[in-house]
Structures are given as structure tokens and as C-alpha cells.
Amino acid sequence: QYFTLLIITDGVISDMDETRHAIVQAAKLPMSIIIIGVGNADFTAMEFLDGDSSALRSYTGEEAVRDIVQFVPFRDFRN
């Protein structure tokens, strides 16, 4: 079995350390996380979680074994 978690958000993350840690742990499981950003918020943190520029690390320094997060800003596809 493989799971996909879809998160639709219009805001900024307030618990970045805990979120990073949870994603690093989830990278060991058969799952992917898709985050869709709606609205005009600053989604810089979501782009960081995407891990395309560098491997995601938890606050303990543990590196994600694979990239499981894909961030999509909905405003880029509205029209």
C-alpha cells in the first residue's frame, strides 16, 4: 500500500521544526505529501519543505531518506 497526504493551505506554517521532523520521519514510510498553497500568502516555508534545492533535515539533524513533499502554488495555475 502507498498513501498520499494532500494538504491545502492558505497560510504560513507556525511550527516549522515539528513539521520538518514529521516529514523526515514520514520519508521512511510508503507515502507522499502534496501541499497546495491557495491565496497570496508567502509560501517560502512550503517551498523549503519541498526539498528540491537541498535535502530536508529535522531539527535533530537527521536527513530525509527521500523527497516525499511536492509543493504547488495554486496561483501559478489559476488561469
Automatic annotation (TrEMBL):
Residue span(s) of domain Copine C-terminal: 1-79
SUPFAM superfamilies: vWA-like
InterPro entries in alphabetical order: Copine (IPR045052), Copine_C (IPR010734), vWFA_dom_sf (IPR036465)
Pfam families: Copine
Name recorded for this polypeptide: Copine C-terminal domain-containing protein
Source species taxonomy: Eukaryota, Metazoa, Chordata, Craniata, Vertebrata
